[in-house]
Amino acid sequence: MTTRSKVYCSSCGGGNSAEEKFCSTCGSTMGMVNAPAAPTTTVVREGVVATGVQHVGYTGASIVAILTLLVTIFGLGDVFGLRWGSRPVGFLTEIAKPAPGYIVGIVIVLILNASFFRLMAPRRRDVGMSAVRSYRRTLRTRDGIRLLLSPSGLRAGVVTVSLLWIGMGAMALFDFGSLGDDGFDTGTGLYASIVLPILGVIATACLWPMSTETVSMDRRGVIIRG
User: Fold this and answer.
1) How do residues 180-209 score in pLDDT, each as one tens digit?
2) Residues 88 and 154 occupy one common structural domain
3) Do 93 and 190 fall within a single domain?
4) Judgement on whether residues 126 and 94 belong to the same structural domain of the protein
5) Can you list the alpha helix ranges (DSSP code H) found in 128-187?
6) Mind giving me the DSSP string for 19-74?
7) Do residue 5 and residue 58 come from a single domain?
């Protein structure tokens, strides 16, 4: 018995005998295709599996940045007594508010945190927003990963944000001295504005990638180890 060779349509993948000039399934002209193309997994990005220290750093950096923003906003409005300082002027009280440079600094910190310290997930255009949220919630259960960070700009982000925190702390320390020289009583907001940048530097430094595992991710969010 003679076994006829089989070729496959380049348009629909349907099987046809080698003698056929047109596909019996879709009618297209047969090309020189000997087998259907096997599905491949396209690796589009790499991610860093966060260590316990990095996980603490990521959470801490977010909390410290938000607290600093709140302290700064409340200091501007003298809410909850979070002024930087005060002194009597006749029958009135003059309030010292956060320095403009400090306000700009915390806004930049928030922007850089979101830009440099990003969580990995499939892109919204590939799977949709609801699938991205579900992916992040179930990452630990599905792949045993608590936190998956994007390696792009991670080191640069740690250095840049740490220097920014140091600059903000130096600015608050300078105002601590100058306000005292001008007869102001330093307030709770100024003390908090000195301590929070120190915590910000510590939390940010914890994000430095040291001996971390790197994995690959395809367009659908499938994790490929090794």
Assistant:
1) 888 889 899 999 999 999 999 999 999 998
2) yes
3) yes
4) yes
5) 129-143, 154-181
6) T-SB-TTT-PBP-S--SPPPP-PPEEEEEEE--HHHHHHHHHHHHHHHHHHHHHHH
7) no
> Which residues are within 8 A (CB) of 205 and not within 5 positions of it... i.e. 6 or more apart?
57, 158, 162
Structure tokens at 209: 């990638």
Does residue 114 sit in the same domain as residue 4?
no
Residue 31 scores a pLDDT above 80: no
- Looking at the structure, tell me whether residues 153 and 210 fall in a common domain: yes
d(CA 72, CA 200): 15
**CB distance 96 to 81 below 8 Å:** no
Q: Identify the residue whose tokens are 């000195």.
A: 194
212: Cβ–Cβ under 8 A, 6 or more apart, which residues? 48, 49, 50, 51, 54
Domain that holds residue 136: 43-224
Strand partners, 8: 15
Domain total for the chain?
2
